[in-house]
Amino acid sequence: MNQKIYLLVLTALSFFQMEAQQVGATPEQVKAWTSQWEGERFDDGRPMVPDLVIERLKNATLEQVWGYMNRKGYRNQVEMGWLILKPGETMTGRAVTTQFMPTRPDLDSLVRASGKAEGRSQKGGINIWPIDILRSGDIYVADGYGKIKDGTLIGSSLGNAIYGKTGNGVVFNGSVRDMEELKDTEGFNAWMKGQDPSYIKDMTPTSINAPIRIGSVTVFPGDIVFANEYGVAFIPAHMVKDLVSASELTGLRDEFERVLLQEGKYLSGEIHGDWSDKIKDEYRAWFAKYPKELTVTKEDIEKYLAKEDH
Amino acid sequence: MKFKLLFLILIFSATGLLSGQSVTWPADNIIALTADWEGERFPDGRPKISDNLLERLKGVSMEEAWATLRKNGYMNQFENFSGVSENSWEILHPDQPMTGRAVTAQYTPARPDLENYVQAQGKKEKNPSKISNYSPISVLVEGDIYVADGYGKMEEGTLIGDNLGNAIWNASKRGFVFNGSIRDVEGNLEIEGMNGWFRGSDPSAIKNMMLSAINGPIRIGRATILPGDAVLAKKTGVVFIPSHLVAQLVISGEVTALQDEFTHMRINDGTYEYKDERFVGGWSEIIDKDFVNWAINKSDLPMPKSELKEYLDAHPRVNKGN
Fold first, then answer.
1. Which ipTM value was assigned to this complex?
2. Which residues in B118-156 are b (16+ Cβ under 10 Å) and which e?
């Protein structure tokens, strides 16, 4: 009798099974969290921030990124205190998030059963599930709750797999092993809290592509990661384009001011203060011949000059 | 059994549980999370461990709790935040153990888009007021312990002051366990009967952090906690016990304590020769008979005599040793 009821419910519920998942957030959930993003999305629901914007973001400074988000009310988006595989490089990309928790058999068996039902890999450890879904331009961001010994989320093999899929690297509130060998994978980089020769033990990935916490930051799936040797910022997808434009405008003005200062045609007060029409014209001419690709357009420059009163 | 698991997975599928779209996790999901519990449940889905067992749990030593959990494969249920000292919890009343059923809350660093989502979702779930650090307290019932992950934040991480402390006490008649801080320690100390385990105190008010989930799985340091876990909080630390293991853990802890008491007594009165941390000849039939006779005639047994007899029959102890 009981079984019959189960069967009926099973039939009823199997409609949902097609779309909905358990370990992995559904595209609908990801959309709900990132509802301010109005552009295109990947099929997993994450915002498809254009590659050019993500590439141009590399030119920003951590202060510019922090300042822009802070002005918009996002005051907890930068995390410091990293061990960096290759300091000196800047990495930007789209976050795929994963939450790890200390293993307990009841929760772990549920996660394994759910992952199986979601069609996730049944070979190797379940810590590879997030890596399986990575795509070009992604960054694998995981909360390993700062566990170092027995908390190594990847070694050199998985590091190579991640690089192969994303062309990027990882940001872990946790650790890696094989740091020496990982250094040899050109293009791959890692921001982590430590490294250890031990292998991962007693950890369960309880959610994939849900909001997670990396130290003092709440990170969403699809956040744009900005990582350099000074820190890591997690930028909500909906504000990246404007942030890049704003930091380009600031950067362009700084660069142009240096050009003027070296020429010595103007007093430094004229250069740093409100610009005269003459300087504005020089700026337009300088911008028109700017050699690199920018997200800032001529219209952005005109808008900037119209309200310019620095 | 397999059938049951499949059924639960489908419930998960329908509600998308582990990835956490809800603010307050629905009963169905909590039932699925705690599927090994076969007894009664509260309307919110949490296992209803009996008051009597929770009372007896107070007498179980941390080592006994740890041993039973370990035997069952649960390696990550204890936390004392040990650094240089054996226990780094701050405790309102360290000499008073506390037991109860966990109501869990997850806090996370604030970000406006998540705040918008949580408030909209909270309305959808028909919360009577705005989602705040009061929301988890509003669902407490007597016998509950408010367990929150405030990710160790001290300044502007104060999950309660003495007003909310009073609210916790009035609703739960127990207290709280926070990986985070509180304010108004003095005021909270005055709430008679309430106890609390926390990481530290700060005079600042809570800021730049937000509640993201009630009654989902949370982490307190090294331990993973599910809603309805039994909490055993003592001077030496806190252990979170899966509901389905509480009965077994309590009786086995109690019997081990009896065996220890008996052993100490017989060492002291010299009835049997004791050498190299054991009775010469091991725990023999004679010693065991003596023990059983002593135990079941004890006037201050923590458990019903019938439960003791049943347990002793089911768990032979005789071990001749070497």
1. 0.89
2. bbebbeeeebeeebebebbbebbeebbbbbbbbbebeee
